[in-house]
Every structure is written in C-alpha cells, then in structure tokens.
Design a protein that fits this description.
heterotetramer; A mainly alpha (497); B mainly alpha (221); C mainly alpha (681); D mainly alpha (313); A: 497 residues; mainly alpha; 80% helix; globular; C: 681 residues; two-stranded antiparallel sheet
C-alpha cells in the first residue's frame, strides 16, 4: 500500500510536465498553451508540497523499486524547482505575450518555447529524485540540451553565441562529471559488486570501504564537472552569456534552479566522499572554489554594462556562498547553505523578472540607459530594489540569514583566512552591485518615459517572490525549518536522516 | 596467457592513442572526420576486446553500436551539415599552437595522465590498467583540441574525442554500467551532436563564418 | 499601572501605525498629521518607558523559534534605556518639527514613502538598542542603516545625493562587517549568539580574543559614529538628507554607534580592572582627539551650513570618545571614582550633542527650507525675518560652543576635569600622553566657538548677501515648537546639571553627585580638598542679578539717553552694500592660513574670455579650495587599487571560448596535481 | 555668621575688582605715556571717560539686531560673574564652591562669543575683520591657556580657585620648577586675552593692526562704556590671577582685619607693579604681524608642555 502511494506520488510529480508538453504540441494556440503551462507548473507545485509534507513526516520516499529515492535534500531542491517553475510559468505568459506583440517571436517560437519549458521542468524534476547517479547525470546533461534550445529560441547573434559557448563548455564539464561518477561506481563495485552499485543508496552504504585515492580523484572530477554546470569559478565563464541571452523566464529558471540542480550533484558526491575519507578533503576543495567564485564575481560586477549579466555574476557569487557553507560544514554552515539554496532561488528569479520587465519598458538592457525606475514603475522598482538588497545580503531580507549562518560557521570552523577574504569581497560586491542598482532605480527618468506598470501578470510573480524574500528574512515556518534541518542532517550524517 | 592478453590490451590502447594523435595532427575538416572515423573503428575493436576478455555479451552490443553510430552515422551527419554550408571552412588556418607543437603537447598530456592515474590501485584488473590512462589521455587531448582550435567544427571534433575517451573509460572501468544508462548516455551524445549541428548551421548563417573568433561579442573587457 | 512590557509595545505599535498610514496616505495636511502624530506619541511613550526602566527594573523577553538558531531576545536595561531616552526625546521634537517642515517637501515629492521610512527609522533605532541577540542586533542595525540610506537619498533627483548615499551605505556596511566579526568572536568562544552568553562568558576569553573583540567593535561602531578616519560618509550623507533626517541621524543615529561601543566594552569584551586594557582607552582617546580636531577644522572652513554641522558632529563624537576612553583607562587602573566622572562626561556630552545638534540641524533646515540654499555665502541678515529661528539657533550655537550657562559647557567641563584627573594614573607615560591629548581637545573647543560664530553670524547677522532671500518669512509654528523643545532642554541641562548627572548615574548604576538639583558638583583631589566645584544654578543667579544690577546702575549713573538709528559707518564712501561685507570664506581665512599644512588651500581660477583674446575677460571666478586629505591619501588609493584588480579580472572574460576551456583544463589539472602531490607527501 | 562675613568679603573682593579695573588701565596708560616722554592723562582718566560715555546719546547702526544691543550687557555680566570666583586679597572666596577656573574661562569665552557676533552684526567690513582675527587668536589661545592651567591645577591640586590660591600661598617661597614654565605660558596668554601688545594694540584705530577695537567700533554711549569697562575688568581679573598664583606673597589667608589690610595693600602694590611692568613691556615691543602671533602662542604652548612633563617627572 505504502509503495503504491509512493509510486503514485512520484508518478504524479512527473506526469504534469509530460502531459503539458504533449498538450502544447497538440494545441498550438498561443493563448491556451500559456495557461496550460501555468496549470502544469501549479500541479507540480501542489504535488511537490505534498511530497514535502510526506518527507517531513517520514524522511524518505522510495518508488518504483529503487529507481527513485527522495529524501529531505531532494525535497529542498524539488521545492525550489516547483516554486520557481510556477512563478516563471506565470511570468512567461506576460513576457512571451509582449515579445510576440513586439514581433520578436512568432507563433512557432512560442510553441517551441512552451514545449521546451515543460520538458525543461521535467528534466530538472528527475535530477533530485533519481536514485541512480547515472540517470542523474543523464538528466543534468538533458537539462543542458533543453536549455540550449531555449536559449537559442531567438536567432539573434548573441543568443547563438551564448548557446554555443554554453553547449560546449557545459558538455565538456559534464563529461568530467560522468568520469567522476564512473570512478565512484568503480570504487563501489571494487568493494561490493552488487545490483545497486550505481545507486546513491548503495553507494553511500558502502562508502566507508572506498579507496581513498580513488575517491579523491573522483571528487575532483565531480567538482570540476558539476561545478562547471553549477557556475563555480573559474568554470563559470558560460554563465553570464547564457543567463543574459536567454528569454527572461528561462534566465530565472537557469539561475534560480538549474544551478541548484547541478550543485545538488556535487552535494551528493560530497556526502559519499565525506563518508569515505572524511569531510576534510572535499571541504577544502569546496572552500577554495567558493572563495575564487566570490572574488571573481565581485570583481566582475564592477564593470558590467548589462543588467542581466550582472545578475548572472551575482549567481556565481551565490553558488560560491552555497559551496562555502557546505565546505565550512558544521550544522550551522550546512543549514545556511541549504537555506541559501532556497533563498537564492527566490531572490534571483525576482531580480530576473524585474529586469525583464524593466528592459521591456525601457527597451534596453544596458544599465546606462535605465534611470528612475522608481518613478516610472514604482511597484516593479520597489520589488527590484528588495530583490537587489536581498542579493547583497542586506537584512531584513532572507539571504542575510543564510549568509550569517555560513559566515558564522566559517568562524566556528576556524577558516579565518577564507572568511576574511569572503567578508571583504561580500562588502565589495555590496558596493559594486548596489552602485549599479541605485543608479538604475533612482534618479530622473528621461522625459518620454510614461509612468505605467507592465501588467498584473508581470507583477504577480514578482510580488509572490518579493513577499517570500521579506518574510523568510524574519520568519521561517517551523515545517520548513524541520525540512532544512533534516536535509542538513542528511549531509552531515553521511546520507541518512 | 595473461601476459599475451595484457600485451594485446596495451597494444590496442597504443593504437587508439595513435589514432587520436591522427586527429591532432590533421588540418582540414574532412581529414579530421576521417581520422575520427578510424579512431572510432579502433575504439569499437577495443570494446570488442574488452567484451572478449570479460566475457560479457552486452559489451559486444556496445561495440556494435559504437561502430555504427560513431564511425558511420556521426560522420555522415557532419558531412551532411557541412555540405550545406556555403562558406569556406575546409582548412583551418591558424590554431593557437602549431601542429607540431600540439603533437608534442599531446604526448606530454599522455605522460601527465599516466602520472596522475598512477596512485589508483588497479588490483589485478588488466583492462583498467591498460585502458584507464589511455582514456584519460583522450580527455586531455580532446580538451586540448578544444582549447587550441579556432573553428566551430574543430570544437565539435574535440568534443567527439572526449566522448570517445569517455566511452572507453566507462567500458574499461565498469565493463558496461548497465545497458539502459549506456543507451541514455548514447542518446544524450547523439542529441548533443544534433543540437551542435543545428547551432553550426545557425552560426554559419548568422556570422558568415565558422571561426570562433567571431563569437566574441559577449565579453567583459 | 501599565506594565513595562506594554509600555514597550505601545511605541512600537505606534511607529508601525505611523509607517503604514504613511504608505496609505496621499499628500495632505491630514496625511502629515497621520504620519507624524503617531511618531510623536510613540516618542513620548518611549521617553516614559525608558525613564521607567532607568528608575525601575530592566525589561527582558524572548521570542523563540521564529528563525532557526536565533531567538529574538530583548533586553532593555539602564544603558539601553538611556539611549532610548535620547531617541525618544529627539524624535519627539523632530516629529513635531516635521509636521511643518514636510509641507515644503510635499510640493515636489510624495510623502508616503517618507512617512514610512521616517517611522521605521525611529523604530529601528529603538530596536537596535533593545536587542539582546547578536543576530537580531545586526538585523536591526542594518535596517537602521538601510532606512537612513533611503532617507539620505530621498532627494534622488540630484546625482550628488545618490553618490553620498552610496558612500554612506558602503561605509556603514563595512562597519557592520567588523561588528559582525566582533560578535562572531564571541560566538566562537561561547557557542551562542545571545548577548547573555557573551556577557557571562566574556571574562573567560583569552586576552587576544578580548583585544580583537574590542578592536573590531571599535572599528565597526566607530564607522557608524563617524570617527576619523572612518568618517568620510558623514559629511556627505548628513547634508544630503532632508534636514529633519539630518537631525535624527546626527543627533541620534551616530550615538547608536557609541551605544554599541559601550555595550561591547563594558558588557561583553571581558573588560576589567587590569592595566592590560589601558591601551583600549588610549586608543579611544587618540582617535577621539583626532576626530575632534579634524572634525572641527573642516567645520570652521566649511561654507555649506549642513556640512559644517556634520563636521561638527565628527568633532563632538571625538569629545564623547575622549570621555569614554578616559573612563576605560581609569577603570583599567581601578580608579572607579574618576572612571565614573569620565563616563558621566562622555554620556553627558552624548545627550547634549543629541539635543543641540538636533536643534541646530532643525534650525539649518528651517533656514534652508525658506531660502533654498545651504551655502552661507548667500545668506545673511535672517535675524530680522526669522527672529525665532535665529534665537533658537543661537541657543544651539552657544551650547555647542561649550559656553556657560548652557549644557555644552557642563559636559566639556566634566571632560576637562576627567582629563585633569589623569594625574591619578600610576603610569607616567599615560599621564603625559593624556595631558598632551588635552591640547587638541582644548583647541577643538576654541575652534568650535569660532565655527559657530561664523555659522550664526554669517547666516543670521549683518546684511543679506543675495537678493533672492530678502522676502522670506518665519517658518511655521510647529517647526518653531519642535526646535523650542530641544532649546529648552539645552538650557535646562545647562542650568540644572543634576538632571543629567542623576539620569546618567541611575541608568549606569553608578554613584555620582550632586545629590540634589541645587547641590554643588565637586571633584576631590588627593588631599581630600575640593579639586573643582561647580554649581550652575548659583552661577545663573549671579549672572542674572548682575545683569539687573548693572542695568540699574548704569541707568542711575547716566540717566536717560537717546538712541538714534543711523547707517553703519562707511568711512564716508557712501552706502555700504553686501559685496563689501566679510564673506564666510574670508572670515575663516586666518584659521585656514594658520593650519595651511593641513588644509593645503589653493585658489582655483576659472576665466571666461571674449573670443580669442585671453586678456579680455568676460567673467572670472576664483574659488578657494581645500584638500581633503583623507580621501586623497586613504580612500582614493584603496578604491583605485580595487578597480585596478577588477580591471585585471574582467580581462579573464575575453569572449574566447578557447580561453574558457583552458580555464577548465587548468583547474582540473591543478586540482589533480594537488591530489597527486599531496598524496606523495 | 562666619559664612555671612566670608560672603560679604567675597562681595567686597568683587567690588574691588570692579572699582579698580579702570584704575589699572589708567596706570598702564600713564606709564606708557611716561616711557614715551609724554605727560599723559591722569590715571583717573578712564573713570572720567566712563562717566562721560554713560551720559551720552547712542547712535546705533540700522543694520544691527538685538544681538548688537544685548552684547555689551551680556559681555559685562559674564565678565563680572567671573570676578566672583577670583580671590583678590583673601586667599579664598566663598564663591569657590560655585565655580572654578574653567568656568571663568568659559564666561570670558561667552563674552567674547557675543562680542564677535556683535562685530559681525554691524555689516561693515571692520566688524568682520575684527571678528575674523579674534576667531583665530581666541581659538589658538584656548589650548595654550588650558595647558598652563593643567600645570597649575595639578601642582596646586585643583581648578577650584580657592584651593588653588590657598595652596600656592602656603607653598614654599621658591615655586615649583614647572610653575615657572606655566607662568611664562600664562603671561603670554594673558597678553593675548587682554589684547595687549604684541597681540593687539588697544591704543590705535588702524585697520591693519586692531583686533578688539574693530569689533566695538560701532558702539557709542552707554554700550561703549560697558564694553570698555568690561574689558578693564577682564584685564584686572587676569592680572590678579597671575599675581595671586605665581606671586601670592602677602595674600591674607584668614579673616582677620590686619591680615586683610596687609593683603589688600600688597594686592594694590603688586597689581600696580604688574601693570607698570606690562606697560614697560608694551613700550619696548611692536605689534606683531597677525600671522606671527601663532608663533608666540606656540611658545606659550611649548612652555606649558614642558611644565607638564616636569610635573610628572
């Protein structure tokens, strides 16, 4: 009975995007397919909430034999995917509608967009729940392919360039991830050749017996591989291009969720490696890459001219912070990192949505051409400001809480050098990021700008995210606390809650 | 018996490496394609050897698949795509590092991969012993080709070398993970190649060139 | 009797109501009342509450589980209540003042955002001083910074304001980073974020940690307080803000920095009566003296009235820090009586500065709101059009110059006595250094008086220097009333020092005389004789009776004489006009010349000539510019080295995919080599 | 009863200062005239001047405000209040509990503050000029003054003038070494505070040299009388301080008629001698250029600093 429920749970999780994609392909009506996608996304959200509530009570769900395995960590990722997917679907309707009115896209493109969007959601949903790490890899690679298609939806020069770089770099990176995965598998079958040797559950079970040298090399490959996809510097180079050239809702999903999915891969193997050889080694590497990411992101933001590129670099910074939290370890650090995953998934899409709306209004992405947003579109302006302040870690917004935890754990773990550098560059990021933001939000708009918002459907998703950003800054519901607590236990406790 | 087997393994690995060098050393796109085709044939032979040594029948299927997909379908697709292109792309004029130097660097990379892999305990597994460094060298060489070459097409080829290395690596280490995942990986690669072909097409249309140098609009400096 | 908890909640609720009604309102008189009346009532409750705490027992409460790891803990003890009292007092006056003041703003701006931010700003300050958990302290602290930042850039049409706002925000954030570090050291030692655990655990910290906790807190809170050389934001932000906000910021917000320092030093740095800590005090005295003298030197040559006031805030923070530092030194040598004296001096000056700087900023705001210029070169003669404002500004000016019988004199008297008491310290080098530190301090007092002669004289006295301010009127009654409250406090705290000293000694649980309003303040010397005495009420009695007596005496002696009004003597050249008057720049020229090493003044000449011929000048403009050494020597090099680094980093993003792949390759190889080589070793 | 007597004596000391102030000015002027081979006016001339001035009508500038009119009264009241805390011929004063030396300085500063404002209030360049120079000089004198007070206060144990002067009158005949340095510093400062040469020339009305006079240039009648008188009072207060701190010989330390009489007479003698000394000094130096004055003040500061070091060593 219980297995049946579990199987159905997973099935209903994966069914909506499949059905959605099919319906979009069949119906092809511009008005309908947007609504369908919103339905799909909301069904996913509801189902994920159900899954989360089950996870809170029973910690793990296993379905279809051993094919799917959901624990608290997966649930956190699922939660971020579903929330961002939901708001992105709502936002898409308005955004793509306007693109259509502009003549930027035609009917064919819109159908392709919504197909891609549904498939993209599907692939991402599978990543955190697949028990087989090979399947996980396949799905991460699949997300790359789908998102490349979504990025090159417009046949603009820049979009094609970005898509190309993304494709090549991500594929190369992920091939390293596969090498790492296979190495782990090899380590596993060397000690215990069994059916589920490729499965996460099987792997973490035997991890204590793995050969240390093998694990180290394997983890390096994993880190570089999934790190490329997760946007850790210096493998992040594709990220600003891809995120800035994609259609805005896609940028939001890429930045808010896809990076998390890739990072999820790192976390899984980090757990295995910690069990195998103790957390010291992988922590060390995570901290190094994290510091490099934060420094490079901070430095790159200063000279940015394009709004979305700037946001992309900010994603690099936040992935750095997440990896820093995991690397510092300790309950506080890991908790902070997981909270950071959620917080970033809320704040970054908010910023992307706002920036998309703003670029449509001003007909420009260059920040120098945008001034006085607060006067032209007050609500969007305030939401943009809230998102920006959250991103730079200003209280009382949510990211401050997680950053506080991460940095505290850094002090606690005695990594003073790393923490000092990070704090310095967080201040630098704060300065350079806000400098751009404030120039755009305040000041006098040019006289021909008419004061108006861009429609309720554009505001709604931002308002949802904005209120979550504010609320999570001062209050985290007990259920969410429990979930994150369990997820951090999964990481710190060798994979078991 | 074991030593003979090991010799066979080593020699086939060496042949594979030489085939890989062939790709590094050639200039024109058609030459690469041919070199790639040869390399894939060698690869499928190597796969068959692995199948023989381990006695797992699934590996023969994989070898067959490799032969079909890599030495026939992919070159065909790429030839088809490039034939449609109307611009001059056949000869790459100037890689960052000259061909002679690249060959030497590739040799160094082979040495590097032997050095890096040394510490892994292979136990008595001769297949791993023989092929792991070879496949590792293939990654590095593939990556080097990607770094060094300046046309979009050559980068696809670099990617293909890496995929070949990956395939060999997976085979050598795991003797076939499981057919399902293997197929998944194959499909991924195929779709990847397909998408990159579409992109190739787009790039040549939009930029009137296949030079990656044209793809430098998005940058910070 | 209403419980303390309710009294604490009422003002919070009122400020929230004020904030929300601000958001919901449109521009109108009603809206202004809806914004500022709640904040006024809230401030009154704050005052009542804090006096209740000072005289009664501390309020403590905990709201657990709203966030993981961090409980919202509130503790209002005497120290918090003292600062809360300052907040309440000044914000009451400022709220009252704002009812009239913001009318001016309504014409060009929406009030809704302002009303929201204004109320939240006051609320955040109250919450900062009452929080008892480092996490929530930082939340409220940054909220305070953020809200005040928005208020600074409230006139965001001017790019200059945005820039000063940015400087402010970045500097204060940098400060927060240090505060954060200081708290985290406590956290490492105690494993808890609550101030309570710091408080109990701090005595057990290793000396190094204690020192680090102090130094980080010193830098962090010093930034907020506007201590030199971390003061750069202050003279930019305060003038940019609307004047009522400048008043709040300068009078109250920078005091929260002082609060933080006191909290850290006396509560959770493990500070105690040991000569190990004497250098903390000396550090405070050194930076305090530097702030005082540098602040006042910039103030005296300044032409922008609000900038001058801002620099003067730096000066006064310096004086407060000197007092605080002396208190630390005395405590570390276990000279309790003098430590109390120095702390009273410091806290007395804190409350005084809050009062008179609030008053002065409001006065300046009144002037700016009717004349629309902050440059005193264009002002003058306002005493006739604005008699009330000028009188109130004069009271502020006399107080801040440290002249009897107003409050500034009292706190400076205490500070001087504390400096003199340094001869009790059993260390010659400290004795001499503190004695020498009194040199910049005394110089500061002298120049401060000159500064305010200049500010008041040039703004309110003599002839109007520009034509467009001739037909101006006195400001509305609510503004006058708002200023009068603080002016009354200035007088009250000057004439009856008992009010201040008893407040401080009760709040800080110390014993200090005088024991009744009319009693003498006295400082004892070694032989038990009185070292110094002061009784301000009697001084005021003498002063006023002499005034009456001499009036009568002269009248009797000279009889009734006529008074004729006639033009100022002009050496017979004909009518004097405003171009012949002394300008503010020329007024401060001697001081600028004496300190030319510091100011490096030079004249900038702009010439505009007719056509080609450079000798036929159409206009010539000469401006005396002084160098800002801190920006030139300290900040500009730091910023430009960062920008240099940024420039190098952005070169990495070349746009070449080959380069990108190379980075991946290099990373991979390096990490693999790292693994390989670390294994061999 | 004793209290009543001390208060009365205290008041008498105040009166002595108020009454003798113009006389000291007269003595100095007479001496200066003599050294310049002039006969000079009577030493009582300042009294005549004051009497004349209070009876004269006033002309007030139409540019001025109430500050200009109130200034002489405030100035006078402030300086006279300061006189209450000064022991003159008795080594202490009952008002010592009310205020100390720092308060005296504060009250002087209050008077000067208003005088500077009055100078600015008349809207002529003269007033601005005077205030501007006074701003600089007073600002620089402040630290010098405080440092020398520092030396004196820690040597004699208080800024309370009763304590201070009692201690100095009880101290040995030969002063402490640091006191000599303090005396040099304080003497220079007193010349500056009272506007004597080489800081300021009270006798000229030349815009190149004058400081104090420019600020009161617009005053006439009663106001001018008050300004002049208060200036004399300030002068005698500072001279009294100087002689009572550094040469306290003969000052009465108890309330006996005899000692009081001796004290009073020696005070008259000492203050006259000091006035004559200052007058001689003034005759022998020229007014210094404005920007050389800081050098002089620097000397005062330096000697006081040496004094401080000597205190502690």
């Amino acid at each position: 009975m219980d297995t049946l429920i579990s199987n159905l749970t997973i099935l209903f999780l994966l069914l909506p995007p499949v059905v959605g994609a099919c319906l979009v392909t069949v119906l092809k009506k511009k008005r309908v397919i947007g609504a369908i996608t919103i339905c799909t996304a909301s069904l996913i959200l509801i189902q994920v909430l159900f899954v989360v509530s089950r996870i809170i009570s029973q910690k793990t769900i296993t379905a279809f034999g051993n094919a799917f395995y959901v624990d608290s960590l997966s649930a956190v990722i699922l939660l971020s995917i579903s929330v961002v997917g939901f708001v992105a679907a709502i936002y898409s309707k308005n955004y793509m509608g306007r693109q259509y009115d502009n003549g930027t896209v035609d009917d064919k493109h819109i159908v392709r967009y919504y197909q891609g969007f549904n498939v993209f959601l599907l692939t991402m949903l599978v990543v955190p729940i697949a028990n087989n790490l090979g399947v996980m890899w396949v799905m991460v690679e699949a997300t790359t392919l789908v998102s490349v298609l979504l990025i090159m939806l417009y046949f603009k020069e820049n979009a094609i360039e970005a898509a190309w770089k993304y494709l090549i770099i991500a594929t190369v990176g992920l091939s390293f991830a596969l090498i790492g995965t296979v190495f782990f598998y090899y380590a596993n079958i060397n000690t215990n050749p069994s059916e589920d040797a490729m499965n996460w559950t099987g792997m973490v079970h035997n991890a204590k017996l793995f050969d240390p040298n093998l694990v180290k090399i394997a983890f390096v490959f994993i880190l570089v591989g999934f790190g490329t996809k997760a946007g850790l510097a210096p493998m992040h180079t594709w990220l600003p291009d891809a995120h800035s050239e994609a259609p805005t809702p896609v940028s939001a999903v890429l930045s808010g969720v896809l990076l998390n999915c890739a990072f999820y891969g790192i976390i899984r193997f980090h757990i295995v490696s910690s069990v195998a050889i103790g957390p010291g080694f992988s922590n060390q590497l995570l901290i190094i890459l994290a510091v490099v990411s934060i420094v490079i992101a901070a430095a790159s933001i200063y000279f940015q001219k394009d709004m979305k590129r700037m946001l992309a670099y900010s994603s690099v910074e936040h992935m750095g912070l997440i990896s820093l939290g995991i690397g510092f370890g300790g309950l506080l650090g890991i908790y902070g990192a997981i909270l950071q995953i959620i917080n970033h998934a809320l704040a970054k899409p908010l910023m992307f949505f706002a920036s998309g709306t703003i670029s449509q209004k001003y007909d420009a992405k260059a920040m120098s051409k945008i001034t006085g947003i607060i006067k032209v579109m007050p609500i969007t302006g305030i939401l943009f400001l809230i998102g920006g302040l959250a991103l730079v870690g200003m209280p009382p917004f949510n990211i401050f809480v997680s950053e506080f935890m991460i940095l505290s754990s850094g002090f606690k773990s005695g990594q003073f050098v790393a923490v000092s550098i990070v704090i310095l560059f967080l201040v630098v990021t704060f300065a350079v990021f806000l400098r751009h933001l404030i120039k755009m939000i305040f000041g006098d708009p040019s006289s021909e700008m008419k004061k108006s918002e861009m429609g309720k459907l554009a505001i709604l998703p931002m308002a949802i995210l904005g209120s979550l950003v504010v609320i999570l800054g001062i209050y985290i519901p007990v259920q969410l606390q429990t979930l994150i607590q369990n997820a951090s236990t999964v990481i710190s406790n060798g994979g078991f809650a | 018996m074991d030593t003979i087997q090991f010799d066979i393994l080593t020699i086939s690995g060496a042949i594979l490496l030489i085939a890989t060098f062939g790709i590094v050393a050639t200039r024109g796109f058609m030459d690469w394609l041919n070199a790639y085709r040869y390399q894939s044939i060698v690869l499928s032979g190597v796969t068959a050897i692995i199948g023989y040594v381990t006695g797992i029948w699934e590996i023969y299927i994989a070898a067959g698949l490799t032969l079909v997909i890599k030495s026939i379908i992919i070159p065909k697709v790429l030839t088809y795509v490039t034939r449609k292109l109307e611009i001059e792309f056949k000869l790459e004029t100037n890689p960052y590092v000259s061909i002679r130097a690249s060959v030497i660097i590739s040799a160094l990379l082979v040495a590097l991969s032997y050095f890096l892999i040394q510490q892994i305990p292979f136990k008595s597994d001769q297949i791993v012993n023989a092929y792991l460094p070879v496949s590792m060298a293939q990654f590095f060489i593939g990556l080097f080709v990607l770094v060094n070459r300046r046309t979009v097409l050559s980068q696809v080829v670099g990617l293909l070398i890496i995929e070949n290395g990956l395939f060999l690596f997976a085979m050598a280490l795991t003797h076939g993970v499981s057919l399902l995942i293997e197929i998944g990986i194959f499909v991924d690669i195929l779709v990847g190649i397909l998408i990159s072909s579409i992109l190739l097409f787009r790039i040549s249309r939009t930029f009137d060139s296949l030079d990656v140098g044209k793809l430098e609009n998005l940058r910070d400096d | 009797m209403i419980s303390n908890l309710v009294l604490f909640q009422i003002p919070i609720l009122l400020f929230v109501i004020g904030a929300l009604s601000g958001l919901l309102s449109r521009n109108s008189r009603l809206a202004r009342l809806m914004i500022f009346v709640p904040s006024m009532i809230g401030s009154i409750f704050t005052i009542v509450f804090s006096i209740g705490i000072i005289t009664g027992t501390p309020l403590k409460l905990t709201v657990p589980h709203i966030l993981p790891f961090f409980d919202l803990e509130i503790l209002v003890d005497g120290i918090s209540a003292f600062f809360m009292l300052i907040i309440g007092l000044v914000s009451f006056a400022v709220s009252l003042y704002s009812i009239g003041y913001s009318k001016e703003y309504e014409i060009k701006k929406r009030m809704s955002a302002f009303g929201f931010l204004f109320n939240i700003f006051i609320l955040s300050m109250i919450l900062v001083v009452s929080s008892n958990n480092s996490f929530f302290f930082l939340i409220f602290w940054e909220l305070m910074s953020l809200v005040s930042f928005f208020l600074v850039i409230y006139d965001h049409d001017k790019e200059e304001n945005l820039k000063s706002g940015m400087t402010y925000l970045v500097m204060t954030h940098l400060g927060t980073a240090f505060i954060f570090a200081s708290f985290l050291l406590g956290y490492i030692q105690t494993g808890n974020f609550s101030f309570d655990s710091f408080r109990h655990g701090s005595t057990g910290f290793p000396l190094l940690v204690k020192n680090l906790v102090f130094v980080f807190a010193f830098i962090g809170f010093g930034t907020k307080a506007g201590m030199v050389p971390l003061h750069v934001w202050l003279p930019k932000a305060h003038p940019s803000a609307p004047s009522n906000i400048s008043a709040l910021m300068s009078a109250v917000m920078i005091k929260i920095g002082i609060y933080g320092m006191i909290r850290t030093i006396f509560d959770f740095s493990g500070f105690g009566a040991s000569p190990d800590f004497a250098w903390w005090g000396m550090l405070l005295v050194a930076f305090g003296s530097a702030s005082a003298i540098i602040g006042v030197l910039y103030a005296v040559v300044e032409r922008d009235i609000k900038r001058a006031l801002a620099f003067s805030s730096i000066e006064n923070i310096g004086i407060i820090l000197i007092g605080l530092g002396l208190s630390v030194v005395f405590t570390s040598f276990n000279l309790t009586a003098f430590a109390v004296l120095a702390l009273v001096a410091s806290m007395y000056h804190t409350i005084n500065h809050a009062v008179f700087k609030g008053l002065l900023f409001m006065g300046a705001g009144s002037v700016v709101s009717v004349t629309h210029t902050k440059n005193i070169e264009h002002l003058g003669g306002l005493v006739k059009q604005m008699p009330w404002t000028s009188l109130l500004f004069l009271i502020g000016a006399i107080s801040i110059s440290g002249l009897p019988p107003f409050n500034g004199f009292i706190s400076e008297w205490f500070t001087l006595q504390a400096l003199l008491s340094s001869y009790h310290i059993p260390s010659t080098i400290l004795q001499i250094s503190i004695a020498f530190a009194s040199l910049p301090f005394a110089l500061t007092i002298g120049i401060a008086a000159a500064t305010f002669v200049k500010l008041f004289g040039m703004t309110f006295l003599s002839k109007t220097r520009s034509e467009n301010i001739i037909n101006i009127k006195e400001v509305p009654r609510s503004m006058i009333l708002g200023m009068s409250i603080l002016a009354a406090v200035c007088v009250l705290f000057g004439v009856v020092p008992y009010l201040g000293t008893s407040l401080i000694s009760t709040a800080f649980h110390m014993s200090f005389q005088p024991s009744s309003p009319l009693d003498f303040i006295s400082v004892q010397n070694n032989s038990g004789k009185s070292f110094a005495n002061l009784s301000m009420p009697v001084v005021v009695i003498i002063l006023s009776s002499i005034s009456i007596a001499i009036f009568g005496f002269i009248r009797v002696l000279g009889g009734h004489t006529k008074k004729t009004t006639y033009g100022t003597w002009d050496c017979g050249f004909g009518s004097l006009n405003e171009r012949m008057e002394y300008t503010p720049t020329s007024l401060s020229q001697p001081i600028r010349a004496v300190f030319k090493v510091f100011f490096k003044p030079h004249n900038q000449t702009e010439k505009e000539s007719f056509g080609e011929n450079q000798y036929l000048l159409k206009t010539i403009k000469v401006e005396t510019v002084i160098k800002n050494i801190f920006e030139d020597v300290l900040y500009t090099p730091i910023v430009s080295s960062f920008v240099f680094f940024f420039d190098k980093v952005r070169r990495l993003q070349t746009g070449k995919i080959n380069a990108y792949l190379l980075y991946i390759m290099i990373t991979l190889v390096l990490l693999l080599l790292f693994v390989r080589l670390s294994n061999n070793a | 009863m004793l209290n009543m007597i001390t208060i009365i004596i205290g008041l008498i000391q105040v009166l002595v200062i108020l009454v003798l102030a113009p006389l000291l000015t007269g003595i100095i002027r007479k001496t200066k005239a003599r050294t310049q081979k002039r006969i000079g006016a009577s030493i009582l001339q300042p009294y005549y001047d004051l009497l004349k001035l209070v009876r004269k009508d006033e002309v007030i500038s139409d540019q001025t405000s109430w500050i200009f009119r109130a200034c002489p009264w405030i100035n006078f009241a402030a300086i006279t209040t300061a006189a209450f805390f000064i022991p003159v011929f008795l080594a202490y004063t009952p008002f010592g509990l009310v205020g100390d030396l720092l308060l005296v300085i504060g009250l002087f500063a209050l008077g000067r503050f208003f005088t500077m404002l009055a100078g600015l209030d008349v809207a002529s360049s003269f007033g601005g000029l005077g205030s501007s120079r006074e701003m600089m000089i007073s600002a620089l004198l402040e630290p010098a003054l405080f440092l020398s007070i520092f030396v004196v206060a820690i040597t004699y144990g208080g800024t309370n003038l009763s304590t201070l002067i009692s201690a100095s009158s009880n101290s040995s005949f030969l002063p402490h070494p640091q006191i000599i340095f303090a005396a040099i510093g304080l003497f220079i400062i007193i010349l500056g505070e009272t506007g004597r040469l080489p800081f300021d020339n009270p006798a000229t009305h030349l815009e190149l040299t004058m400081v104090h006079e420019t600020m009161i240039l617009e005053y006439s009648g009663k106001s001018l009388a008050l300004m002049e008188w208060s200036q004399s009072i300030k002068q005698i207060i500072l001279f009294t301080l100087m002689i009572n701190i550094f040469v306290p010989w003969g000052i009465s330390s108890s309330i006996l008629l005899s000692t009081l009489a001796v004290g009073f007479l020696t005070f008259i003698g000492k203050i006259s001698l000091f006035g004559i000394f200052v007058a001689f000094l003034e005759s022998s130096v020229a007014k210094w250029r404005l920007f050389r004055i800081p050098d002089l003040i620097a000397i005062a500061i330096a000697t006081s600093m040496i004094g401080i070091v000597l205190c502690y060593l």
